[in-house]
Specification:
Strand content of chain B: under 5%
Distance between the termini of chain B: 36 Å
Radius of gyration of chain B: 23 Å
Shape of chain B: elongated
Helix content of chain A: 25-40%
Oligomer: heterotrimer
CATH superfamily of the largest domain in chain A: P-loop containing nucleotide triphosphate hydrolases
Number of strands of chain B: 0
CATH architecture of the largest domain in chain A: 3-Layer(aba) Sandwich
Shape of chain A: globular
Number of domains of chain A: 2
Number of strands of chain A: 12
Structural class of chain A: alpha/beta
Structural class of chain B: mainly alpha
Chains: A alpha/beta, B mainly alpha, C mainly alpha
Number of helices of chain A: 12
Radius of gyration of chain A: 21 Å
Amino acid sequence: MNEKTLEVRGLTVCIPTEKGVICPVNDVSLEVPAGSITGIVGESGCGKSMTARAVMGLLRYPAKVTGGSVLLGGREITSLPEKERRKLRGAEISMIFQEPMTSLNPVVKVGRQVEEAVRLHTACSREEARARTLEMFREVEIPEPESRLDCYPHQLSGGLRQRVMIAMAMVCRPKLLIADEPTTALDVTVEAQILKLLERLRDAGTSVLLISHNLGVIAKVCDYVYVMYAGRIVEQAETNTIFSRPEHPYTRGLFRSVASLREGGGVLETIPGVVPNLLRLPAGCSFSLRCGQCADNCRERMPELRETEPDHKVRCFLPGKEETE
Amino acid sequence: MLRTKRKRAEQAADLLLQSQIGEEERFRDLMRRMVRENKTAAASFVLIVLMVLAAALGPLLTPYGENEMDLLHRLAAPSAEHLLGTDEGGRDVLTRLLYGARVSLLIGVAPALLSLILGAALGVAAGYRGGLTDAVIMRVADVTLAFPSMLLAMVIMYALGGGILNVFLTLTLVNWANVARVVRAQTLKLKNCEFVEAARIIGVSRGRIMRRHILPNCLPTLLVLFTLNIPASILTESSLSFLGLGIQPPNASWGLMINTGRQYLYSAPWLCFAPGAAIMLIVLAFNFLGNGLLDVLDPRMKKQ
Amino acid sequence: MVKRNLARRLVQALIVLTGVTLLIFVMLRIVPGNPVETMMGEHANAETVARMTAEMGLDQPLHVQFFRYISSAVRGDFGTSYSMGKPVSRLIGGAFVNTLILALFAALFAWVVGIACGIFSAVRKNRLPDRLFMGFSLLGISLPVFMAAMFLQYVFAFRLQWLPISGTESWTGFILPAVALGWNSAGQVAQMTRTTLLETLQEDYIDTARAKGRGPFGVLIRHALRNAMLPVLTMMAIQFSGLLSGAVITETVFSINGVGRLMVQAISGRDIPLLQATSLLATTVVILGSLLADCLYSVLDPRIRKEG
């Protein structure tokens, strides 16, 4: 299948603030092919969550999409009126969030919350909605599903809550599921289970856009990876490629820090400097201030995304170059 | 020998305390910040100062006396001669208003201060000592709070009789329970802080801990409570006087002026509305100031 | 679990009530002077005073008087009014109904108007409706009840003659006093509703609701309000006490025969039984109110239910 479930072209999101306009998402283009799990990886604040929200149409005022377009299953959705957009949310495209503890309404039973998703998009009775919810609970492997229907969120563990969230997102069989840091707030053992669940969903026909700052998670389940920094895509390739041959200095820095952690002993490698303030971005490449191989050219002009090998793009003037000491 | 040991322990605990407090903003800087950020609070502060000045100096500046009657010009509407008109005895309303300001401000501040002291003392004792002291003090506070404030004030006034001093006492008794509750809650939080534990280990006496370690840290809360209790006292007093149960004539208080002016509500509405507006202004001003203080002191309190 | 907690709170309430009764009892009797003398005024001579004192049982020691009072009170007998000569329970009965209606009207006004203003303000944050409503609520909080009462009476009853000046012959007589009384509470409710709603709208589950496809109205009503209303409800229960305080004034201004006005009359008439009974009634209502509020909160917030 070479159909694309999601296509994002040149998306830009800007927020007017008292001190100026900042663009946490700047000219981002990506694709989620049908039947795949595609990942976006980057540090906190690089714009990956904003991109997800923009795709869903869930930006919080005063953030706005100021450029680009989003196509869902080939259909342009950014120019749709809000009412039409709403019909898609929950039914064609869904999202699960990072904190299952606070993402569920504390005073409503979880069964009701999932039923709500059903009844918003299909005309059916309470009993039918409840039956579908139960079925979904079983699919996401919630133990003792009948009794859980009437539980309140605070009565469930973190892992169960995330399963409920997934059930709520999947109950209408959307084409695309966006998972924003789905396992960050969970234990490692639970994380493995949730990731397995995502793979099963993918096999059953839903494409997944997985967002994480955790390289391990990305490596485990993603087919294709986009690396984001300061609102831009800086590298993209298939998972195997990017993990074996990272070319952007930032990506390399990321991998090095994780590797040094795993190998233990000695110095923990970090990327020097901090994520830039979006109000005061450097003139050229956004990474120039922290880059070990920064040349004069890099400080003056923003590099374009260029293909260095088939299906491997990098936004750098000197990709793959070894760093000078 | 034991005394010097104790003295040294106390000095050590004080030093520990100093190092805690030293980090925090000085009072002056806090006030400066409030003025900068909260314009209404700043304006209220200015208004209050002006009112105090008017109350203190005003009566000296008006040509009329407090009880100067002029029966030929009773119930005159506001005019150039009498800026706020005259009352049923021909007395200048503005003058009465200014004299009444003294009473009302005093009625606001004194009981607020007294109830603050009483409430803080009892609250700290209840919170720190716990056990029976806590239970007893809190039950009494609950009983006091179970009463609607006006009704409690009325019953106490009945028991004590009229007069300014009794009004003071009444208002104090009505307001202390609130202060006590808040101070107790703060004490419970502070009790487990490290510097208190340290002081206890060194051997500082309970009373001293309460006085020098816990209470000073409650000061921001107490300041806010004080500022917010003043308008409450003023309102309660004016309500009492309005019902004829508070300040008695011939003393002027704003509430009393409204009470006597009530009969002439339809013929001479200014008799009621002038003191009423004055009450409103001062209550608003103190409320704004109190909320402004709360905003400025809040992060400081959160740190604790 | 809930029942055990309810029982515990009931016992606490009873203790407070007994404490209050005792307090009132003691306070009223430490007044110097013999109430019988005051009652009889000029006709008092030592003999008659002594006889009446013995008759009314006022010469007994305090604790005996207290027990006698409690035992008759439980049977519904609150003594005879000194100033009006009728049994207190009868006087209060009629008045209580009036005060209750007044308080309920006022509460309804306060809550409906307050919550509506709060919601509107929160949804149109920092724009004109917000500033307008918050200005009103500020006015509500700082305007003393007697000012509001007199102002309303002057403008709407006297000048415009839309509503009666006083009395309660028709239900319209309750409107102005209810508004005057509820004005203050409305302001507080409006401010609190706005604050809690604004906070709630920032929560994560609001995002989830929107991600499901809920429209803004649905999100507001079905998700935001349900959570935002909890603290507001607690506040409304606390306000009940304030309503009773204000009722005293409103009843006086509008000449409504209610418990508050009776209390004022009792004080000026040095009428101990009446004063005692009215105070007791007021306190009981307040205590019941806060008990009800606690129960309501437990019912509405499932997180509390577990711990009781």
